[in-house]
Amino acid sequence: MSNGEMRAARIGSPASLASIEVQKAPVPSPGADDIVLRVEASSLNFHDYLVVTGVIPQPNGRIPLSDGAGTIAALGSNVRGMKVGDHVMGLFFPHWHDGEPSPEKNGAISGETVDGFAADYVSLSSSAITPIPAGYSSLEAATLPCAGVTAWRALTETAKLKSGDTLLVQGSGGVSMFALQIAKAIGATVIATSSDDTKLDRLRSMGADYLINYRTTPDWAAAARAATGGKGVDVILDIGGGNTLPQSIAACRMGGQILMIGVLSGVSMTMGIPAIVMNHIHLSGLAVGSRAHQLELVDFINRTGIRPVIDSSFPLDKLGEAFRYQQTNKHFGKIGVDII
Fold first, then answer.
1. Taking the domains of the chain in order of start, what are their residue ranges?
2. Which sign does the torsion angle of CA 229, 232, 233, 234 carry?
3. What are this entry's molecular-function GO terms (predicted)?
4. What does 137-204 look like in DSSP terms, one character per residue?
């Protein structure tokens, strides 16, 4: 690895899509316990959009993007068990290695509280990476640290989804797509919602068992209950927040689970607390997961062969355009960023 210059996309002040600028920077050198990652790809998450548009305030010059994958370009003197050229990916929470979340483990967030992966090279602790799945490209791997790990932890650790259960996923973004694939590999029945019939057809081709267009069927909770014979859905992955949670509650079976992972439709709501209490609904909030969760997901992918759905990809110097495309909500699956 040379000690020359690299590119890094930085957020200006005030933060906006127009303020993103690709600048020259020196290639980092690894500390004794670190590796330098040659970033080859990243992907966009809604969290990244909140960062680059200033909804989550940032210092001037922050390097965004929570996901990144590539090859090890250099090793610190204390690093063992790795070598230059290994294909690896970073973590959303670089300090959360295993166990329960805590303020200390979740204090560092890639692309938010610390610099992210919108750069040619990044220096990381050797404990803040994992291998990528066998046969995955860097672009495919770069879809996993946020969306893939969120879906994995939500379904397998929190919900303990099992064969025969019913899962409802909302939309066709990264987390929902991974959840659909993981659930089908486990043997669950999947109900998918979208406002776009073309997207619903594609979700059917991926294995969704029941499809609901929530624009033409505004009371999609009733349609979901009908799909379960009136019992209600076992597990609901709610990505909408304020505008979707009331219907998620109405669609959930007695004793079922609603996993809150997003706020795409709003951050506040008037909630029907009696319905939650009297129906014994388990309402859980969660954000991504640990290095241990990511390793579990890699093992699951290696055993099942599931692959991410990538809508399109943009070069690093078109990062603002990538986010503008994300704003249109026309994408199906993940939007990638080619950095190599």
1. 5-143+308-338, 148-285
2. negative
3. oxidoreductase activity
4. -HHHHTTIIIIIHHHHIIIIIIS---TT-EEEEESSSHHHHHHHHHHHHHT-EEEEEES-HHHHHHHH
| CA–CA distance, 332 with 171 (Å, rounded to integer) | 9
Per-residue pLDDT of the chain (340 residues; tens, 9 = 90+): 445 999 999 999 999 999 999 999 999 999 999 999 999 999 999 999 999 999 999 999 999 999 999 999 999 999 999 999 999 999 999 999 999 999 999 999 999 999 999 999 999 999 999 999 999 999 999 999 999 999 999 999 999 999 999 999 999 999 999 999 999 999 999 999 999 999 999 999 999 999 999 999 999 999 999 999 999 999 999 998 778 899 999 999 999 999 999 765 455 556 678 888 999 999 999 999 999 999 999 999 999 999 999 999 999 999 999 999 999 999 999 999 999 8
Q: 14 preceded by cis ω (within 30°)? A: yes
H/E stretch holding 313: strand 310-315
Helices (H) and strands (E) in the chain, counts: 10, 15
> What is the per-residue DSSP string for 15-66?
--GGG-EEEEEEPP---TTEEEEEEEEEE--HHHHHHHTTSS---TT----S
Q: CA-CA distance, 311 to 169, in Å (whole number)?
A: 18
- What SS3 class is residue 290? coil
> What Å distances lie between residue 118 and 16, 24, 40, CA to CA?
16, 12, 10
| 148-285 homologous superfamily | NAD(P)-binding Rossmann-like Domain (3.40.50.720)
